[in-house]
């Protein structure tokens, strides 16, 4: 299939075996999540094993659109396997991240990676086009380094005698060159110490956060994967792709000469840089110079890089991770620490909030019923948050000495509550806001119903903002007593796109009476189909898709339903055909594989 | 002396030094002193200028370059290179290296076969005839502006350079100095413009311009 490089890399860390799997064997699963599920299904015989069992397989998958100019479709990478975070059972789950890893992997000639086994001592994987080497971490003293240091050490190693202000030749088998740094996916100390809050980190702030895959890598003694690719991605219809990209952006993206809804984040039409929530707080915004910063191929990057170098590329909830901070600089530094230690932002926030509540009630603190070394009177300082994050990352008191509390909270808030004998009571009172599967509160499932249903039907907090945006963002700009559209018009535009349930306007009735209805079941079904295929298998970015309502479009009818299959067909040469009917077939198969 | 981007904004002025140096090339009657155009047989009829403080680092320009020229997407084959460091400090976290279309190109002088030549039918742009290229890489090594702007196509074993999209089978419309340029067309933040005014030929400064306006500032990004 066009868009793919044709090979999937299978690495056994126990034996050192490196095997090539033809992508064509798995193309019927589409890409990303679909192929990852199928690979996991085939490679893991006993699906009930622990996340830390060497037989656990972690898949890292691209899509046919990765590395192309299909807007908002180019950068995501899908990660799957048995995760360390889900509670009460470590089960098959997923995560993903943006940046430029998936594109570089395809430029190197690989459509994905399947990791299995566990090394005896810490290793990292060095991929330079077709050359794949499992290297000992000790040569570069990588193990023990934070997630930023390890990337920069690998940058230097790959450059050899060269430097990234000019061309480097990474591949001894050819004279191909690149000006790009390798794309590195790594763990920080949290992953090395098997914290269930540990992420896979790429660049300053791209993280595969939920699922605890950093701990899974730590158990496999895998510090990092570095990819350097100098090859090409073949497109079925290059001319049509270029034309479609220009037309899609001209018609539906932010127009600097005709600005509309400039402050709105996370829509296809949003202007660059609006995913950085801290910039909307006068006390926390950067006062220095900055640029928007985009993942590869994106028409509108959601984050920023700063003159201070603090908080680079941070976005969404991590930019509000420590709003108790006494200054903007402390908040920005706190987020950098989060990323350097390689810790899941949402889980760290949930755990920290829970511990703070227990402290307020006199239950947790130095010498209290739950002995915790943190001085909660010092909340807001950099020292406080650094100590908390170090407790999570190093399983100690955060200052370098052993302490049971660090060891307990590194397991995540739910398992900590269980250890402290408080789980049932604190879940019931709402003190511990973890509504499902050991994942922290995100949006209230009583209000954001499809989010709750999607999560309890699946394996994790879904973190899919498709429908939620209609409520949180769009109400302000489209139908809050103001301008362009009436609520009825909004409902018609959105439900018209929800083929094959398009005639049911009550899918968007979020009243209590409708929560348990067939209408809501249709909405949840459509949402599961859309996200599992287009977002997690074709890897369209959650911050830019779907495009339901668009201020720049004729009658404000966004491009979803037309644009997704258009780009898929142009890149792959396949005829996707009917938008959702086909999607339903493919996606049902993926769901069945997941559930099995 | 001015130039316009695709939105029609006036943006660029020619340096006094280059105006004096190259004014002999100007076509009398063109009405644009300091510019170049038909009849001029020395300089390319235009130049790409970038704003390195504005670029969002999406590399769409790089992906589009090889797509419209060769029908594949390759960062290594792109004639415009965006170099960036996720951990760097703005504005030094990113540089853009586009071909300068030098008035006196070092790459062209060293080509032993004439493969690298000026195309009189494409606005004098210096370009590589892949059939004549013997892969000696002298043009690549001769470029004095790191990273070298002549590109090594390792898959097809020849050099190539920016032709301002003159030879682009997959662009879908006319390219070249008087046509469309893929990198400029695709840049989502208007950080690339085209000018027919000769930039300062000393160093890269004349090729890096300020394209930030009031609307940019309203989004929270500095104008200066």
Describe this structure in words.
The complex is a heterodimer of chains A (596) and B (224). The radius of gyration of chain A is 23 Å and the shape is globular. In chain A, 32% of the residues lie in helices and 13% in strands. In chain A, strands 2-1-6-3-4-5 form a 6-stranded mixed beta sheet, with helices on both faces. A 6-stranded mixed beta sheet of chain A has the order 8-7-12-9-10-11. Chain A has 596 residues and is of the alpha+beta class. In chain A, α6 (238-252) runs antiparallel to α18 and α13 (449-457) packs across α17. Chain A has helices at 32-43, 101-107, 147-159, 189-192, 213-219, 238-252, 328-341, 345-360, 382-394, 404-409, 413-419, 423-429, 449-457, 468-472, 474-477, 487-496, 518-535, 563-572, 581-595, and strands spanning 7-12, 18-22, 58-61, 77-82, 92-97, 112-116, 123-128, 131-136, 183-186, 200-202, 206-208, 222-228, 233-234, 290-293, 303-306, 364-365, 370-371. Chain A is built from 19 helices and 17 strands. Chain B has a single domain (16-202), classed as 2-Layer Sandwich (Alpha-Beta Plaits), CATH 3.30.70.20. Chain B has helices spanning 16-22, 60-70, 106-110, 138-142, 182-186, 214-218, and strands spanning 47-50, 72-73, 80-84, 94-98, 116-119, 125-128, 151-153, 158-160, 192-195. Chain B is α+β, with helices and mostly antiparallel strands and 224 residues long. Chain B is built from 6 helices and 9 strands; from the N terminus they run αβαβββαββαββαβα. Mean pLDDT of chain B is 86; it is low at 1-33. In chain B, the strands form 4 sheets. In chain B, strands 1-9 form a two-stranded antiparallel ribbon. A two-stranded antiparallel ribbon of chain B has the order 3-4. The chains are: A alpha+beta (596), B alpha+beta (224). At the A-B interface, α3, β13, α6 and β14 of A face α2, β2, β4, α5 and α6 of B.
């Amino acid at each position: 299939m066009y868009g793919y490089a044709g090979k999937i890399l299978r690495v056994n860390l126990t034996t050192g075996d490196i095997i090539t799997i033809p992508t064509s064997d798995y193309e019927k699963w589409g890409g990303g999540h679909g192929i990852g599920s199928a690979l996991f299904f085939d490679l893991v015989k006993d699906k009930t094993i622990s996340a830390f069992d060497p037989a656990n397989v972690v898949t890292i998958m691209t899509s046919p659109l990765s590395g192309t100019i299909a807007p908002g479709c180019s950068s995501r990478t899908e990660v799957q396997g048995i995760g360390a975070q889900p509670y009460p059972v470590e089960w098959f789950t997923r995560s993903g991240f943006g940046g430029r890893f998936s594109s570089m992997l395809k430029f190197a000639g690989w459509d994905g990676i399947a990791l299995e086994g566990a090394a005896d001592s810490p290793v990292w994987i060095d991929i330079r086009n077709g050359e794949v080497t499992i290297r000992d971490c000790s040569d570069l003293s990588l193990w023990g380094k934070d997630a930023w240091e390890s990337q920069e050490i690998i940058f230097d190693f790959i450059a050899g005698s060269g430097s990234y202000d000019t061309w480097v030749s990474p591949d001894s088998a050819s004279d191909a060159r690149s000006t790009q740094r390798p794309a590195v996916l790594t763990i920080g100390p949290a992953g090395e110490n098997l914290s269930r809050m540990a992420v896979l980190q790429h660049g300053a702030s791209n993280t595969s956060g939920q699922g605890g895959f950093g701990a899974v890598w730590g158990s496999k003694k895998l510090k990092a994967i570095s990819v350097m690719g100098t090859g090409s991605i073949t497109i079925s219809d290059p001319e049509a792709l270029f034309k479609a990209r220009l037309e899609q952006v001209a018609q539906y993206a932010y127009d600097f000469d005709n600005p509309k809804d400039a402050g709105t984040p996370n829509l296809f039409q949003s202007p660059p840089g609006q995913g950085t929530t801290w910039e909307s707080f006068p006390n926390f915004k950067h006062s220095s110079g900055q640029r928007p910063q985009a993942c590869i191929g994106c028409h509108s990057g959601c984050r920023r890089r700063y003159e201070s170098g603090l908080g680079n590329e941070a976005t969404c909830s991590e930019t509000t991770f420590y709003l108790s901070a006494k200054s903007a600089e402390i908040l920005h530094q706190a987020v950098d620490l989060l990323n350097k230690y390689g810790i899941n932002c949402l889980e760290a926030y949930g755990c920290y909030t829970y511990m703070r509540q227990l402290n307020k009630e006199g239950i947790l603190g130095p010498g209290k019923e739950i002995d915790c070394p943190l001085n909660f009177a010092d909340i807001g300082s950099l020292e406080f948050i650094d100590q908390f994050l170090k407790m999570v990352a190093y399983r100690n008191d955060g200052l370098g000495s052993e302490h049971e509390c660090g060891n307990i909270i590194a397991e995540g808030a739910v398992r900590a509550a269980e250890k402290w004998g408080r789980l049932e009571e604190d879940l019931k009172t709402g003190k511990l806001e973890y509504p499902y599967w050991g994942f922290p509160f995100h949006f209230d499932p009583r209000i954001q119903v499809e989010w709750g249903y999607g999560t309890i039907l699946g394996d994790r907090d879904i973190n899919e903002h498709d429908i939620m945006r209609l409520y949180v963002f769009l109400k302000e700009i489209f139908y809050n007593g103001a301008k362009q559209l009436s609520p009825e018009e909004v409902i018609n535009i959105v439900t018209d796109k929800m083929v094959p349930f398009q005639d049911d306007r009550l899918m968007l009735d979020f009243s209590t009476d409708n929560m348990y209805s067939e209408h809501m079941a249709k909405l949840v079904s459509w949402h599961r189909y859309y996200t599992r295929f287009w977002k997690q298998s074709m890897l369209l970015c959650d911050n830019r898709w779907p495009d339901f309502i668009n201020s720049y479009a004729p009658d404000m009818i966004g491009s979803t339903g037309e644009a997704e299959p258009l780009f898929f067909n142009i890149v792959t040469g396949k005829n996707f055909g009917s938008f959702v009917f086909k999607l339903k077939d493919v996606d049902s198969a993926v769901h069945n594989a997941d559930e099995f | 002396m001015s130039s316009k981007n695709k939105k029609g904004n006036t943006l660029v002025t020619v340096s006094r030094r280059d105006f004096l140096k190259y004014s002999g090339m100007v076509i009398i009657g063109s009405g644009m002193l300091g510019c170049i155009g038909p009849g001029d047989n020395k300089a390319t009829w235009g130049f790409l200028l970038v704003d390195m403080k504005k670029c969002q680092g999406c590399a769409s320009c790089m992906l589009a370059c090889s797509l419209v020229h060769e029908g594949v997407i390759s960062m290594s084959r792109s004639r415009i290179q965006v170099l960036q460091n996720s951990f760097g400090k703005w504005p030094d976290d990113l540089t853009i290296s586009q071909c300068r279309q030098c008035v006196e190109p070092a790459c062209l002088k060293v080509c032993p076969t004439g493969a690298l030549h000026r195309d009189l039918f494409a606005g004098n742009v210096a370009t590589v005839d892949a059939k004549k290229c013997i892969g000696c890489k002298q043009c690549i090594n001769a470029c004095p502006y790191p990273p070298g702007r002549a590109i090594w196509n390792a898959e097809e074993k020849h050099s190539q350079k920016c032709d301002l999209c003159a030879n682009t089978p997959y662009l879908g419309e006319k390219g070249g100095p008087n046509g469309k340029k893929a990198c400029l067309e695709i840049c989502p933040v208007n950080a690339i413009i085209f000018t027919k005014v000769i930039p300062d030929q000393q160093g890269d400064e004349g090729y890096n311009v300020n394209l930030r306006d009031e609307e940019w500032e309203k989004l929270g990004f500095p104008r200066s």
